[in-house]
Amino acid sequence: MGVNFLVVGAGAVGGYFGGRLLEAGEDVTFLVRKKRKEQLERTGLVIKSVKGDVTFNDPPLIEKGDSGKFDVILCSTKAYQLEHVLPDLTSFMHEDTVIIPLLNGIQHLDMLTRSFKKEAVLGGLCFIESTLTQEGYIRHTSSGHRLTFGEINGEMTPRVQMIAKTFESTNADVRTSTHIMEDMWRKYLFITTLSGVTTLFNTSVGPIRNSTEGLAFTRRLIQEISSVMQHSDTTNSGHFEEKAWKQFMKLSDETKASMQKDLEKKLPVEADHLQGYLLQLAEKHQVNTPYLKAVYTNLKIYEQSRKG
Ligand SMILES: NC(=O)C1=CN([C@@H]2O[C@H](COP(=O)(O)OP(=O)(O)OC[C@H]3O[C@@H](n4cnc5c(N)ncnc54)[C@H](OP(=O)(O)O)[C@@H]3O)[C@@H](O)[C@H]2O)C=CC1
Ligand SMILES: CC(C)(CO)C(=O)C(=O)O
User: Fold this and answer.
1) Where is the Ketopantoate reductase N-terminal domain (predicted)?
2) Full-model pTM
3) Which of 161, 178, 195 is the last residue of a domain?
4) Which residues form the pocket of ligand 2, taking CB atoms under 6 Å from any ligand atom?
5) Rounded Cα distance, 124 and 115, in Å
6) What is the interface pTM, i.e. ipTM, of the complex?
7) What is the CATH number of the domain that holds 155?
8) Ligand 2 nearest-atom number relative to CA 142
9) Rounded to an integer, what distance in angstroms lies between the CA atom of residue 60 and that of residue 58?
């Protein structure tokens, strides 16, 4: 028997991975809101990707309150939208439904395990540079399209293997992990740094790296965040720092975090979920984080000016 997927949020991430599953002939439905539904009905689900374009004229769409039960829920809203969508999910779940979150950050795991039984929640993350265009198309701009998931406790279970099998023939790099919490914290360090510096300096990676000061700022930011993570008793034993630095140095000059792209589009940002939560941890563990505070302050000023 096949696995059926509910993708929550047909945006840059959900639309991409859900679309790749559809392309492979898998059973996928998107949970959408009215405006996005109307857009998708008009244009189809359109993926413009360096890994191959694809369009689905009639993607399966449902709205909250509709009927249906799903084996796997791929959760791909923004963090600030998540708590509003969670109550809508219960009616789509059966006893063994699993939820795979693809959001950046860590704090959403608490939200998910508070809302559903703990065993329903897997760990997950993705590396992909994608964005929604004005027409609602998904534009995937660099070659990475990796999705990683696994049991929070690190076990390799039959359900993880079964989901991985379903992903096998998709045009995406889907992997299982037996250390997904470590993977999620590492991605959290990387993305909080990248989104932090690209939004603070309002540019892509190239100009930041070409500036001695920009480079020094980035290094200090990584050190601070890594230190907060070590104090927070995570799986970080210090080796994250060097890896995050190397990863930052390897990025193409044009790379921008999705947060910077959202900022350029004057959209809300995940400041509280990413940088804000780390600052809470820093305060709890009394870690001095002036660079992280500067990044967060910039984002809070942006948020305030958006509201204004
Ligand atoms: N974009 C990227 O390159 C990457 C993003 N990420 C992370 O992935 C997560 C998702 O980001 P991204 O895909 O870019 O965000 P998008 O804004 O592109 O997509 C979010 C989608 O969620 C939908 N949504 C929100 N609330 C609901 C709801 N109640 N019911 C149904 N749909 C809903 C939105 O639809 P609506 O039109 O109705 O608002 C939107 O289509 C974030 O945590 C981000 O940090 C991680 C790696 C890369
Ligand atoms: C850096 C990147 C593109 C990697 O997935 C990302 O997560 C983001 O910009 O939100």
Assistant:
1) 6-153
2) 0.97
3) 178
4) 104, 127-129, 191, 194, 257-258
5) 17
6) 0.99
7) 3.40.50.720
8) 3
9) 6
